Fold:
Amino acid sequence: MSSRGIRTTKAVETSFFESDEEDNSPYDSDDPERFGPYYWTDSERKDTAGASVYLLDNAKWTAFKIWRGMDFAGLVLLDFFGLNKSRYQWVVDAAEREEREKEQRELEERQRKELKLAETEAEASKEASALEGGR
Structure:
């Protein structure tokens, strides 16, 4: 316990920049138990807990659930309105679209040239066969 009587956990005491394989951050957890034992899970605490402990633990659990619900709703709304995209995403999308259109035009032009070449070869072949057959 700290000097003010607030229980601290190892997750809070670790540095933000430390890299552990296990995520010790209580803020990313879906488990409200990560914020400390509640009176209903700790039998020793349940027997000695007064009304203030009941009220504090219930308020902490309720606040955690409300916070997680608001966080989820915020993420859904960000996705829905597209606010989590880059500010200039439309520029990136336009550049990619122009690049695809340019590649498509080049492909069509190359195919036209190949078809034209095939047609001229076919005409030359017909003329050659007509000349050979007409002897």
Observations:
- Residues 1-20 have pLDDT under 50 and may be disordered.
- The chain has two domains: 10-81, 85-135.
- The helical segments are 10-13, 43-48, 51-81, 89-133.
- The first helix runs from residue 10 to 13.
